[in-house]
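Q: Joint fold for the lines below.
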Amino acid sequence: MTTRYTEDHEWITVDGDIATVGITAYAAGQLGDVVFVELPEVGKSLSKGDEFAVVESVKAASEVYAPVDGEITAINDALESEPAKVNEDATGDGWFVKIKLADASQLDGLMDEAAYTAHTA
Amino acid sequence: MRYLPHTDTDRKAMLDAIGVASIDELFTDVPEAARLDGLIDLPTKQTELQVERAMAAMSSRNVAASQAPFFVGAGAYKHHVPATVDHLIQRSEFLTAYTPYQPEISQGTLQTLFEFQTQVALLTGMDVANASMYDGSTACAEAVMMAARVTRRTKAVMAGSVHPHYVEASQTLAKYSDVSISVTDAAPADLDAVIAEIDDTTACVVIQTPDIFGRLHDLREVSRIAHEKGALVIAVFTEAVSLGLVEAPGNMGADIAVGEGQSIGVGLNFGGPYVGLFACKDDRRFIRQMPGRLAGETIDADGRRGYVLTLSTREQHIRRDKATSNICTNAGLCSLAWTIHMTLLGEKGLTQLARLNHETACELADALSAVPGVELVNETFFNEFTILLPKKADQVVNDLARFGVLGGVPASRLYPGRFENYLIVAATETNTPEDIAVFAKALAGVL
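A: Joint structure:
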């Protein structure tokens, strides 16, 4: 499994042709306490850069963008009742959606962990 | 505040600073055809006394609603507003308060908004209400857009008996969105027509009760069918007083209730400003998608009760183009007047007022149907109904005006080219038995 990062602070971890996507701990920290996450419908197809979710904290609301092309295969329903999971475990229980990859080569254009750490430094 | 007009020297200095030769150059973006090419033909100056005379002469050409037997409704109703309302809203703390942008320092304003919301929710049988919209028509349009966001569908079905101005406002707001609105024919059985239009792609159905012709609708059946198809039901009302007597939309399955609040506390005001009421059920999906401002009650660090604006992240000043609506204000003073009037009435008073309205309308219906050639169209009504005349209603209204009676709204004014012999008439607690007798006599005279 590899994890990649976008400049807009999404993470994407790939297992086979299914990728799990969320926002980074850094982004969650910047937003503050997350109070609501609006997720898309399963089955929706995305192009890289599409807005697919909205994350709302006590001080701001922000769009979350698709890191790659693909189709939504699952959403993290638990966030509806427990949005705080995004703050508590951004890269674990706080995941947003699972996407079936349309083009795995798009991952090459994203940052690895070292590059993302440098990006947020 | 002092008024300090700019001198020619001031103007020149400012124009020089930004590098343009004349003020007109600042307007070059406006197409030439849309610009005036000279001054409007108005007197350059008049004394205060001359202005008073001119304005008084002009206003005397109006027949004010209070000067004649008045039976005009169709979305705006003449009710008595107690003097207490005007007195209280003119207190400077209230009169000068605009919708709060640094809200929490204005606890009194927020508390009145919270009371307003509570009353709107109770009146409509809903769980949550916002701090008001501009008026009933924009509240209706916003409800359609909200339903589309909630359901992620784009088709709205509006009954043809929804006030045509509300339909137009909704179509205007929807024009540059994905939402398409189909309007059923304003025929008598239009609820059946609405039901026939509901399918799996329908975001919402919009039904007004009492409708533009004054007819009451039971929303239970249409709600059941709409919900089966995953569509929301938006209930519209133009006469808020009716809710003192008829079943609240929230108790008939409606998901969103919107309407005009003008009847309570506001007055006719030449058509505005009015106050839009907006309420919905307590569903997490709904509340996030509501337009407008929401005042909430909370406790401070010491456990004391306080008020806040809540869920502001939906709003335009934070969310910009992604906001749930471009309304990030409310009809502050009118909503205050509404709340004060409603508080003065209380539940019992509102019910009595509604009963009085209905009784007066029943007397009017009896008197008008007794006029030869006049037929009462409605099987049900609250304080407004439609009559069928043996000739064109717009002509009849003009003729009645010559008898000093303001006798209602010809349906053809709302549906151009249709319903030409139909007249929509309203009665409220302000109409006396003498008014009704004068109307019936004048109507018999002009037919």
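Q: Anything notable?
A: Chain A has a mean pLDDT of 92. Residues 113-120 of chain A form the longest helix (8 residues).
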